[in-house]
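Agenda item 2: NAI complex prediction
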Amino acid sequence: MIPSELRQFLDSTRPLLIGGEPVDSGSDGIIDVLDPATEDVVGRTAAAGADDIDAAVSAAQTALHSDAWSGLSPDERGRILWRVAEGLEAHAESLAWLNTLENGKPLSASRAGDVPAAARTFRHYAGMCTKIAGRSPQLVSSARDFHAYTRPEPVGVVGQIVPWNGPIVAASWKLAPALAAGCTSVFKPAEETPLTALYIGRILEEAGLPPGVVNIVPGFGAVAGAAICAHDGIRKVAFTGSTEVGREIVRAAAGNLKKVSLELGGKSPVIICADADLDKAIPAAANAIFFNAGQVCIAGSRLYVEEPVFDRVIDGIARIAADMRVGPGIEDGSQMGPLISRKQLDRVLGLVQSGRDEGARVVTGGERLGDTGCFMQPTVLADTDAGMTVVREEIFGPVLCAMKFTDLDSVIAAANDTEYGLAASIWTRDLQRAHQIAARVEAGLVWINCHAVADPAIAFGGYKQSGWGRENGWEGMEQYLESKSIVANVS
Ligand code: NAI
Ligand code: MG
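Presented output:
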């Protein structure tokens, strides 16, 4: 049952949150939020226009220099972040429901995955507030006469733009390090999933975050997103989403040369060697592509299997796919929910068709499921090769492309034959082989005998066109800090 506090929240059109105040009518109209399982409206939010972004930037600028925020000690800032984690847990059930209603994923995954992960991220960065430190280097040119030190300082007002595939986690990955660094934020959730962000806005308020430190501005990419990226009052944009929009953001950011960090698409290889523990590798490879209906930047979407075990692995994954319970996220036992929207469903089905046209064999799946909602069958394609669109493009759906390999050099070349470079996983019992492949794969994240292990302590981000910069870990914090060098003449 939908928690009653959530029912109340969904009863009225949710306002933008700017300077701690609700802004009832966004200047770009209203967003209808659809449940992808039914395509019914589950809630509404105001949509920010360029004027609202201006107001949000002003509020963030005021908050940046306010005593209420910049006057806090690192310890006090850390306490607020810790209270946010507690708030996320206190409202866990509402957040999980909201995540499932907006995004479609099984409620069990929202409960066990998204909400705890977001809380862990806030706790991790709560602890980092008190660990920010500069250095005191000795000058090369002088032994005694100078004292030099560095001062890490917040970058300033940051624009943060996230997609819909994991709205709670995305908010935590963006907001926690920015706040730990002392920045203020204009935060734009995806138009498909704006409600979770506004709900988190209430939790931030309850945790004692001063007004204007985080401004939440749901809106459309081409309007609100573009206004953030072009705004001269914003010093940095942190973006997660498509590579195509990432490129637009880089162009828009050139105006005032704002800093940019990008977490973009992927086409991550899963490499299964013949000596791997297949009882573990097979279900893990299935999960790597079918989790969240494949709408995951680190989805293991290209599978390379060593020839002697190819048939066994493909049969195993196909059996899991065919047995998978696909259904509404709020239904008990659902293992895979719908795709985010009709548009995404059509896009993914179109890509599968392009695979068929180019000679791929559909081992299982490949079709829409039912005639209500945006459900699709978990799909395995074989006889795919490096030239096919399905192997080159990020599909962002439950579609696996399976290929054979015979030797190490050729599988590494195939794994690296992509413009993306986000993640890879290797399955083998041979330690040497595992680390050799790990060293040679061009990816920001490599997993050995596991896939998609993301942790607040571990830097996350991509090589090549998968992005710029890293999230999580200390590396994630550095994205929000400038370094000032101070040199004093003490002679
Ligand atoms: P998108 O990149 O258009 O949307 C992501 C975010 O960017 C949303 O908040 C959107 O409002 C915003 N945005 C869109 N245009 C913008 C602009 N001109 N300036 C600033 N912000 C803008 O992704 P979309 O259309 O939802 O999905 C299309 C494809 O992108 C997917 O099929 C998938 O391949 C990829 N994608 C990758 C994600 C990842 O985590 N790597 C997440 C979402 C999508
Ligand atoms: Mg788009």
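Discussion summary: The chain has a mean pLDDT of 97.
Owner for follow-up: CH.
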